[in-house]
Protein 1
Amino acid sequence: SMQCFPGLVLALSSLLGALALLQLSLHLRVPSRYGKHEERLCRPRGRLPARCAWFLQELPSFLVPALLLALRSPPRLEPLGCRLLCCLFCWHYFYRTFIYPFFTRGRPFPLQLLFFGMLFCIYNGFLQGYYLIYCAEYPNDWCTDIRFTSGLLLFLLGMGINIHSDLLLRQLRKPGEVTYKIPQGGLFTYVSGANYFGEIVEWFGFAIATWSLPAFAFAFFTLCCIGPRAYHHHRYYLKTFTDYPKSRKALIPFVF
Ligand code: NDX
């Protein structure tokens, strides 16, 4: 049966950090080509409806850690922190896999990115799940540690912002519509990338709560991946809408 190999965790986390830097260097200037940054009507056949695409892409991030948690024998009962944290991760991806895709009104998603996105989700789902189920050691009172409680609070706050902002974006369109409008309300009052801001806060909260290398590597990846994307969205809005709110920032309210 499986056991903890600390070297494997270190290697996979380092590679995740390296992928973050690669992602940053590839997409700081040019955005990832999906959604509003995909050239219109190019490769019409190489796409899948947004619903299927997001479902398939994010499913492994839910399934892999959920299976690791369920199948570990003997089941890991101590300490509580490990299971709780693994459940938090799965909870986010339950939303992203089983709820978000069924309501999205997004444009068809490029197959090629879907393929890499799935690989990424398998990789990260395995790393986070494997670490928490097989490697992590927490004192039995971790749930009352300031890192756990403040991290959990940030996680919940970020998740709330992320889900609320996803909802506001979805309401900009009627079913079947694919046009872009100026997002309004919630944190969009302050930033163009409100959903991304929420997601970044969420994963840094998770990293603080787990206090682990894999979780910090993933938070860093998230920052490198969707941080620049928020900036590209912001530039797109400024270019497209002459009446775009002048005081709105790209990612961080009042700052950047
Ligand atoms: N999926 C994370 N790199 C990514 C997919 C692509 O979950 O190989 C990262 C994620 C993957 C990427 C993933 C990782 C890196 C990959 C990349 C492909 C290549 C790359 C694998 C896994 C790679 C190397 C080589 C380095 C390994 O039509 P539409 O779709 O634009 O409609 C949109 C709509 N909308 C509007 N509607 C009306 N008016 C407007 N003004 C609108 N603006 C937007 O709202 C969508 O339907 C919806 C949301 O759009 P958008 O663009 O704001 O968000 P989106 O980027 O689609 O993300 C959706 C949610 C969001 O909450 C975000 O926080 C979360 O997913 N997310 C997204 C990306 C990554 C991630 C989280 C994370 O890293 N944690």
Protein 2
Amino acid sequence: MKKIAILGSTGSIGTQTLEVARANPDCQVVALAAGSNVEKMEEQIREFHPIAAGMWSEEAAADLRVRVADLDVKVVSGMEGLLEIATISQSQVLVTAIVGMIGIKPTIAAIKAGKDIALANKETLVTAGHIIMPLAKECGVSILPVDSEHSAIFQSLSVNEENAGGHSESIEKILLTASGGPFRGRTREQLKDIQVEDALRHPNWSMGRKVTIDSSTLVNKGLEVMEAKWLFGVELDRIQVVVHPQSIIHSAVQYTDGAIIAQMGTPDMKLPIQYALFYPERRYLGGKRVDLFALGQLTFERPDTDAFPGLALAYRAAETGGSMPTVFNAANEKAVALFLEKKIPYLGIAELIADAMGRHRLIANPTVEDILAVERQTYEYVEEGLSCK
Ligand code: MG
């Protein structure tokens, strides 16, 4: 029996994780946590019967307690509740499908409690990779990537089992693929008038709103470069972003003998989720298969960092290291929220990130508290900067 807890169970990755759990009777859901979607949480509790459930807001938790009063489930709330769900004694794996730096503390607590982490929360490694990776090693837990690209790299490395954790001498390069998003091929000039509705239309993947915008700006790819660096212990100059519009090759590893091993498949997040949950076992998964004859060809391009400066900024933040990736991430979060509220133009997202990075006083080796403080300062800075304009 595989016993799992999920942070962010009502979101896109969370609900797909539950689909995987539903299809695998030997997977038991012991705890769930979500932000504020009480209706969906009630449904999930009635179907999966977890021991405990957490809501971020106390108000939502109070509502949930009333709704599930007939069931034997403990309802918790806030950060304390998240920590309780993350470390619940009955679980073996914590799926971190929560969005934002809010995921850092529960992830650390779960690692300390000996849980393996099925990682879908990018911010954890981007901002605190220097804390998380050594801690996971010390506690003997695995960090299993759920992001499709990192899962593809992990699968390509798992071909030689001793490589699965990365740090292999035989890795020459990581080829991190990107669909290029809905605006691939456009010039900077052509991106000036992009509206929220255009940016929310992703050609291949169906995802949450924030990550869809991040895919269109290539900021998401930048965050993934940073994640890959920590997960696989590979230097930045050996991580190459490759634009591949068909999203069939989900990423690849180039070895020192020139061999490239890639993982291909139809774009379906259930595959990486299931692989992370049952690694090293590969199980049946229904759904569409790649039809190579129907595809005919796969194409590749260099990323255009002139039109999409978010990617170049991510490399710069990663090279600088310390607290800079936190600034990059927090400034982007705030800027994307402002864009979604139609308060700034599309190109303003990268401008605000660059501006916040330029103003930041670097902390070389930030603690978790430093990271959270830098996040708050960056949010404030981006908002104040905006109101002064
Ligand atoms: Mg991805």
